[in-house]
Amino acid sequence: MKALVWLYSFSLLSPAGTVVNFDTCKIGQAPPGWTMESGGKAPDWEIRKDQTAPTQPYVLAEISADRTEARFPLAILNAPSTRDADVSVRIKPISGREGLAGGVVWRYRDANNYYLARANANENTVSVFKVQDGRKIPILASVKHPIPVNSWSILKVSARGSRFQVFVDHRRVLEGRDATFSAPGRVGLWALGDSVVYFDDFRIYPK
Description:
mainly beta, 4% helix, 52% strand
């Protein structure tokens, strides 16, 4: 029952899935029901107000501009755990010198083992990685796709068994296979290095 209470506090539940919009969370704090982790210095996630938010008025933001090498701030939703699912988020890159990228994480085991779909606004690329034993390993070659700064894009992953597809603004841009992580895992959000990135309208639809 407690799990349902915190989910209802900032998301919409339906038989088809979960939609997290952050709009009843406390501004300036990390949202309840999430675990914040990082591969470097501690991440700095907080709820912020953004007048351009797809769902008004709040977004989840990674706001630290720390340039520590191999720093990958993670915000992982504590439930549900899924294997096959469609996972999407609206993403707004704000700033970053070393990096300007955010992403969607799926089949998360721990901070050193998960899949990642990344949208990079500095390079205008979309990439897919597996993070295995702390090493970020490309699964496919990156593809060029516009990722505008200070504007919202939709990043979506559709995972079925070893097969995955990645979409930007409803257009499929990548497709491939990898069987490293075959068990169910949690889902979440990711940022790169000193990237300041906003996220909103996080959706999980188990299949």
